[in-house]
Amino acid sequence: MRLIGSLSSPYVRKVRIVLAEKKLDYELILDNPWTPDTQVTAYNPLGKVPCLLLDDNEALFDSRVIVEYLDALSPVGRLIPPPGRERVEVKRWEAAADGIMDAAAAMFLEAHRRPQGLQWADWLARQESKIQAALSYLDTLLGEQAYCMGVNLCLADIAVGTALGYLDLRSPTLGWRDQHANLARLAEKLDARPSFISTRPPAA
User: Fold this and answer.
1) Chain centroid, CA 198 distance in Å
2) Could you tell me if 54 and 137 lie in one domain?
3) In a shared domain, residues 67 and 125
4) Domain total in the chain
5) Taking CA atoms, which of 47, 118, 144, 149 is between 20 and 30 Å from 156?
6) Taking the model in full, what pTM does it have?
7) Which residues have C-beta within 8 Å of that of residue 139, sequence separation ≥ 6?
8) Cα–Cα distances in Å, from 150 out to 90, 154, 203?
């Protein structure tokens, strides 16, 4: 398998962590979807990373689709429960975490890609409010549990840990750890895992 992606994309990192936890071999093809010579548009009509190329050259895209496929490839370290209430709960965690990454990416693009005089302050404030609300929600949901769903690592933890790492990379001034002690405890545990260490993005 080949994974097209960038080192700074949190969605790519989520997939790479799943690959590491599942002990699956792959080749990482670095690509910047913002450049004219990007490769990803040849495989993903949306022009986004990550994009997973299978052995028959079929392409999968969107991190949620890719991680579901990868988890089904091997029974080793199952990260997504079988269909049912528990699976829906894991996907709910993932949806909230992806929402944090969506909002943080939107803030970064507005603040760093749009000329300063054209930046929309209300838009930035709206994205930050989404992040703060989602962090409060997840912190309460986590409570005193060791992991998002209890005692074992699953996709929920990978998604949340990836989102928190992306906030550290792109929005360090948010200071989310000061307000969300439960998430800070989880992040410290996840950041010590080899899969998280090996996929840590370069400093902004």
Assistant:
1) 15
2) no
3) no
4) 2
5) 47
6) 0.95
7) 179, 180, 181, 182, 183
8) 11, 10, 32
